[in-house]
Every structure is written in structure tokens, then in C-alpha cells.
Design brief:
Helices cover about 75% and strands about 0% of the residues. The chain has 13 helices and two strands.
């Protein structure tokens, strides 16, 4: 009887749990999961939103990889941007987290100030950066002319400087969340480790490389993966400021996907582009996760081995 009663209670708890989860499950099926499945089907069709989808098999993918030069250009631009963004964002965010981890007066206010850019509207901040980077009267070039007496770069109007310009904008807007996650990870490191290191005569640099970095490696892994995923989704800046120019130097992948879907109404081809991007992000994420066994330190793993 007691076993039947316990089984009945577990069933009631399971039903209650699924009832509480049902809004999320229904939302995922109809808002996220359903459209994802539809895009997979549409990627094998020719569809322009007006006529019915027409099945074309693998033609979208074959065209993409063999005849579409803009696909390769957008992939190249996005790859260059990603390679430049990830190390810079992680290193700068970690440095700010170290500075803001000190117990000094007003540190909470400083943390809020550094986090503030990440909650500002992206469209507004994009136009602010357009003013800052203006080659004629922008803040940067005015400072360069006043300090060095030479004309500054054309920034967004130069094929050579447009990617560095986007990197500055992205790092400024993304440093807040990445820094906060690093800061939370640093505050979770036991203080006893640093006390023991100081007793042994370890310098601050030695403590950083022997304690802080190993203990932060799971946090670095998380920030790396999230930044990697985000770097493939750059859109607002290139849409509002450059439209992929100059000379396709800022023709990011998501912008090219948007152009196919909502300018040329090639929904089938845009769906194929979306799935290729998904597979690229998945492959890059799997490589990072597989490599984590070499450089990520998990204290529980060390305890299990003992």
C-alpha cells in the first residue's frame, strides 16, 4: 500500500511539473521548434512568399557553394570579425573584471557604469558610434588631428578600417555581460587558495596564472562559446551604417541572409543560408567543447580521480 501511495504521489508531482512547464513547452513547439523545422523544409525549395514553395532538392546548397561569391565573401568577413573579436573581448573583459573585483569605495557604481552600454538600445548606440567614427568631425579623428596633427582613418568608409570599427563597437557593447560573468567566477574562487599562495611567497602574477586562470577556465569556456555564437549574428551596425560596404568589406553573413530573405524574397535560399550558419556554429562549438578537456579545470574531476 505504501509503495502504491508513493507511486501515486510521484505521478501527481510529475503531472504538476509538466503543467507548470507547459507554457514553455507549447511556446517552444509553436514559436521556436516549429519555425526551425519549417526552415529546414523550405531550404530544399524555391519560395518567394507569393507562390507556393517548389521543391528543388539540393539546388540551393549547390548554388551556394559553387556559384555564389557573396556567400563566400560574407563568410570570410564574418570569420575575420570573429577571429578578431573573441580574444580581444575575453582579454579586455577579464582585465576589467580583475580591476572591478577590488574592495574599494564606489566599486558598485563603477561596475554599473561599465555594464551600462550592454543595456542601451543597439540602434541608438549604433548612431552614436557613427558620429564618433565620422571621418570629418568625429571624436576619434578630432582627437587624432589635435594630438598628432594628421588626418585620421575614414573608419566605416574604408575597406581597411571597417572591420576594426565594428570590433570597437562590439567590444564596447558586449564587455558588460562578459565582464560580469568573469567577476562572478572570480568571487567564487576560495580566498584560502590565495592566502596559501601568499604564505608560500607567490607574487600576484604567479597567483593569477596558477589560481585565477585555472579556476576561471570553466567561465572562460562559457564566455568563449557565447561570444562565438554572438559573433556570427552581427547585423544592426552593417544594416544601419554600411549596408555591407565599402566594397563588400562589411558584408556580414546575417546581413546577406537578410538581403536574400526580405529584399530579394528568396526564402528558400535564405533558409538554406540559415542552416549552413547553424551547422558552422555547431561545428565551431563542438571543436571548442572537445578542446576543453585539455585546458578547462574542473575541481570535481580532480576529486573523482583521487
Amino acid at each position: 500500500m505504501r509503495g502504491q501511495f508513493g507511486s501515486r504521489e510521484r505521478t501527481k508531482e510529475a503531472i504538476a511539473g509538466y503543467l507548470f512547464l507547459s507554457p514553455w513547452i507549447i511556446g517552444f513547439i509553436f514559436i521556436t521548434g516549429g519555425p526551425i523545422l519549417v526552415t529546414l523544409i523550405l531550404s530544399f525549395t524555391q519560395y518567394d512568399l507569393v507562390s507556393a514553395p517548389r521543391f528543388v532538392g539540393l539546388r540551393n546548397y549547390v548554388t551556394m557553394f559553387t556559384h555564389d561569391q557573396l556567400f563566400w565573401q560574407s563568410l570570410k568577413v564574418t570569420a575575420l570579425y570573429t577571429v578578431g573579436l573573441l580574444p580581444a573581448l575575453l582579454v579586455i573583459s577579464l582585465l576589467f573584471a580583475i580591476l572591478l573585483n577590488r574592495k574599494l569605495p564606489g566599486m558598485s557604481t563603477m561596475r554599473t557604469i561599465y555594464y551600462l552600454p550592454s543595456i542601451l538600445p543597439s540602434v541608438a548606440t549604433t548612431f552614436v558610434w557613427a558620429w564618433v567614427l565620422n571621418p570629418d568631425f568625429g571624436v576619434f579623428n578630432s582627437f587624432i588631428r589635435g594630438l598628432l596633427g594628421v588626418a585620421g582613418p575614414r573608419w566605416l568608409g574604408s575597406a581597411q578600417w571597417v572591420i576594426p570599427s565594428f570590433l570597437m563597437m562590439s567590444i564596447w557593447g558586449s564587455i558588460g555581460p562578459t565582464m560580469v560573468i568573469f567577476l562572478a567566477g572570480m568571487q567564487g574562487i576560495p580566498e584560502q587558495l590565495y592566502e596559501a599562495a601568499r604564505v608560500d611567497g607567490a607574487s600576484n602574477v604567479r597567483q593569477f596564472f596558477s589560481i585565477t586562470l585555472p579556476m576561471l577556465s570553466p567561465v572562460i569556456l562559457f564566455n568563449l562559446i557565447m561570444s562565438l555564437i554572438g559573433s556570427f549574428q552581427v547585423f544592426t551596425g552593417t544594416y544601419l551604417l554600411t549596408q555591407g560596404g565599402p566594397n563588400y568589406a562589411s558584408y556580414f553573413y546575417v546581413f546577406y541572409l537578410y538581403k536574400n530573405a526580405f529584399t530579394q524574397f528568396k526564402m528558400g535560399y535564405a533558409s538554406a543560408l540559415a542552416w549552413v550558419m547553424f551547422l558552422i556554429i555547431l561545428a565551431c562549438t563542438m571543436v571548442v567543447l572537445r578542446s576543453s578537456s585539455i585546458w578547462v579545470y574542473y575541481q570535481s574531476d580532480k576529486s573523482d580521480k583521487k
